[in-house]
Design brief:
By secondary structure, the protein is α+β, with helices and mostly antiparallel strands. The chain folds into two domains: 302 residues, phage-related protein like fold (Alpha-Beta Complex); 78 residues. It is 17% helix and 32% strand. The chain contains seven helices and 24 strands. Strand 10 and strand 11 form a beta hairpin.
Length: 436
């Protein structure tokens, strides 16, 4: 009797470069492409603010600041030339900046536990990490955008008697003034012109931690007094309101306020977004109130479908691409009682925000000799936003715990237009509407 012995071999696909030898059709469905699919499917099309940013990659060290320069216009000439030569003209410049900062989050997955589960725990972890990456970049971009376009307009939150210190709701937009086009900290020598309850004054110092403004002239103030910087961006609220403090429960939004926002952008010569329309980002509460407005419903009858935002768009009409956006910010301290939720839809034109990501983030290990040990590649986590996906091999002795990380290095900047059109507002490419 002869017994045949069969030798069983185990071949680890993940330790050998078999992929490159297989047909392209087989390579396309192998496992390593699954991570990218999970990242993409988890995030489309929720996070929209990075998608409207102009992308300008740059290289620099962490903490570095890159200064951007924008030119003003030469004043028009409307008088005849006297003499035999043309007069010499000049133009001013202004600057804005971005800072190289690092963002990211990691998640650890026990692959033994993942194999024991009914579904892959690893893919579930990667999916949740991807959602967090997209939401993080979206809120970073959103914070920069709204920080600029609602800045420079606030109200007193405490009474004062013959004092130069004024505590306000939000000191954002009061700490810098342009001096020869360069953003400069406010001081006694470089004050920012403001009005307090309609009376001219200056800000010579700001404590953003306590939201305290140092005024150039002592005043006696009451709670609710509006404080408005001379270069504050235009915001729109119901008639008779200076700040969100003046809003009431009946301060609802109307179609007329969006028409006013479009008129403002057109008067400032703000370019439209690709496709020829401005974009209005609105949350469900804003949308509900608009559908109760007869002017809005009448204009809606002439709508056309948006080829850009598809399911997120209510339509295109009145010069606006109307976009549903659940990531719109709100504030909960509106009204004189400080208990009203204030919604802040925004109407935007082109180049209102700029993305400045680090250039070639996925290649920072190239040339070290260990670039193939972790897997590092760029993954799209939101429209217009790519992060580095880093999969680190297990470091524990059982070789079970895999660390997956997303990383992004860069900043979002808000270009200023203080020199444009003779208008004092430092930011002109978007308009925020506030309503309850």
């Amino acid at each position: 009797m002869t017994i045949a012995l069969t030798r069983v071999s185990w071949f680890r696909l993940d330790r050998h470069d078999v992929r490159s030898t297989l047909p392209a059709q087989i390579q396309a469905i192998m496992q390593n492409g699954l991570l990218e699919r999970v990242f993409r499917e988890a995030l489309q099309p929720e996070f929209l603010f990075p998608s409207i940013a102009d992308v300008e990659p740059w290289a620099g060290g962490l903490g570095d600041t890159k200064v951007m320069t924008r030119k003003g216009l030469i004043a028009p000439t409307t008088t005849p030339v006297t003499g035999s030569d043309a007069p010499v003209s000049t133009y001013n410049v202004e600057q804005w900046s971005v800072t190289m900062d690092q963002y990211g989050t990691s998640i650890d997955t026990n692959m033994l536990q993942s194999r024991m589960a009914l579904a892959s725990k690893y893919l579930a972890d990667v999916k949740q990490l991807g959602i967090q990456a997209g939401q993080s970049l979206n809120r970073i971009a959103r914070g920069k955008l709204f920080g600029a376009y609602i800045g420079g307009r606030t109200w007193a939150t405490a009474t004062s008697t013959s004092s130069t210190s004024l505590v306000v709701d939000n000191a954002g937009g009061f700490s810098k003034v342009l001096v020869n086009g360069v953003p400069t900290a406010v001081s006694a020598s470089t004050p920012l012109s403001v009005t307090v309850n309609g009376v001219a004054n200056t800000v010579t110092g700001v404590n953003t931690g306590t939201n305290t403004l140092t005024l150039g002239t002592a005043i006696s103030a009451s709670v609710g007094w509006p404080v408005v910087a001379s270069n504050a961006p235009v915001t729109i609220r119901p008639s008779g309101t200076n700040t969100a403090y003046d809003l009431t429960g009946s301060s609802t939004v109307t179609f007329a306020q969006f028409r006013a926002a479009v008129a403002r952008l057109r008067k400032m010569n703000v370019p439209t977004l690709p496709g020829g329309y401005y974009a209005a980002h609105i949350d469900p509460d804003t949308e509900t109130q608009l559908f109760a407005d007869s002017d809005f419903k009448l204009a809606l009858q002439g709508r056309i479908d948006s080829p850009v935002y598809r399911d997120l768009s209510i339509g295109r009409f009145a010069g606006i691409d109307w976009i549903r956006n659940n990531e719109m910010p709100t504030r909960t301290n509106g009204g004189s009682g400080g208990n009203l939720t204030v919604h802040q839809p925004i109407v935007m034109g082109g180049s209102a925000i700029a993305a400045a990501p680090f250039e070639d983030l996925a290649g920072f290990l190239m040339g070290t000799g260990v670039e193939d040990v972790p897997e590092i590649r760029m993954i799209n986590v939101a429209p217009g936003a790519d992060v580095a996906l880093i999969v680190r091999p297990p470091q524990d002795r059982f070789q079970q715990v895999v660390a997956t990380t997303w990383g992004w290095v860069g900043d979002y900047g808000i270009p200023s237009d203080s020199l444009a059109n003779g208008d004092p507002a430092i930011f002109k490419r978007a308009v925020v509407i506030e309503h309850t």
